[in-house]
Write a structure and sequence with these properties.
By secondary structure, the chain is mostly helical. It is built from five helices and two strands; from the N terminus they run H-H-H-E-E-H-H. It is elongated and about 55 Å long.
């Protein structure tokens, strides 16, 4: 997993986002055990307390749950995962549309660009 962090956002927040993306994309399957706090901290090169905070956020959001002596696991609730995926997709669409508006693209130009990209993708 890519653990390059930006300076414009707290590291725990970036960890939360990346782990959420890993869950919704299936890198971590429903019911799968997550690596331990220490393992994630070493892999990401951050303080274990930072990883603990990110995992606590995921627990609060219902994407992971703890089993006292066994560790943390991805929720098996497909609706929670789907809702998280749709929330991320919606945020990315909003960012994209905002950047297109900043460039001065019209709605029709944006639609044309998307259709062109879709056609190119289908050809490959």
């Amino acid at each position: 997993m890519d653990w390059n962090f930006r300076n414009d956002q707290p590291i725990y927040s970036q960890l939360t986002q990346r782990l959420t993306e890993a869950i919704v994309s299936g890198i971590y399957a429903p019911g799968e055990k997550l690596p331990s706090v220490r393992e994630l901290a070493v892999e990401a090169g951050v303080n274990p307390n930072t990883v603990q905070r990110a995992l606590s956020e995921l627990e609060r959001d219902g994407l992971v749950f703890s089993q006292r002596t066994a560790g943390r696991f991805v929720t098996e609730n497909e609706n929670m995962i789907t809702n998280a995926k749709l929330r991320i997709a919606d945020e990315r669409v909003e960012e994209f549309l905002h950047s297109m508006k900043t460039l001065g693209c019209t709605r029709d130009e944006v639609i044309s660009l998307i259709q062109g990209a879709k056609e190119e993708e289908e050809e490959t």
